[in-house]
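Working notes for the structural subgroup meeting. M.R. asked for a predicted model of this chain before we commit to crystallization trials. I am recording the input and output together here so anyone reviewing the notebook later can reproduce the run.

Input as submitted:
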Amino acid sequence: MKAHTIKGGGGIQLHVEETGNKRGRPILFIHGFSQCRLAYDKQMHSDLAKDFRLVAMDIRGHGLSDKPRDAYGDSKLWAEDVQAVIQALRLDQPILSGWSYGGVIICDYVRFYGEDRIGGINLVDAISKLGTDAAFAVISKEFLAIAPGFFSNDVQESVKSLTAFMRMCVHKEPAPHDFYLALGYNTIVPPYVREGLFSRKLENDDLLPKLRKPVLITHGVNDAIVLPEAARQHARAIPHAKLSLYPNVSHAPFAENAPRFNRELRAFVKEAAKARAR
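Returned structure, recorded in token form:
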């Protein structure tokens, strides 16, 4: 595993790690709200590394990346973060795999930089809109009920909400090691960062139908956070997209059913490469 520090939008420092085949097709994993790059352990330490260049970034405010205040409402900054990683690591036509909030970040990127520099998009239990009635309509009431605790500076209240959040991410009771690892990297995200992400208001209904590159939509049937209707909406908005629904999986298909996720991602990367060659 090789670590990089990359200057992102507004000059913040982003922590990025990579592994795998340096000559392979690159996959850039973009995690979600309050998470970090470690969420992708079952991809970064898998046989995907034999064939692909695997890159996982800590988005701004998360993991080992800088955590400035008031730096989360500007879509251009998010787009610049992704572009900085692509440029600094010289990623040739990477597949962008965005989990949950990562779907919004991918949309931010495409809105400002277009699709010419990427090979395809994988939306994983993703959202593409925030802060509107339509955005809240595809978020579970249970998640919204615990959300106020994410922004609390009271440690006990914050950890209580994050603990509930982590359990909602998976359909079955997680292994203690996995659960406490995830809880740990969630708790180091400052409440003001979570509030900054949650406070944005945007929609990308105009952007999705214009996507040209291959798109794979991956979603857990039992997602307790982002309802499967979000995936169906994305599939309707992007006619050429492939929709893959995972039974007995909640919000994290790449963790709950890593063998299937890795197999489908492998096939998608190869299909995207063929589409580029045509």
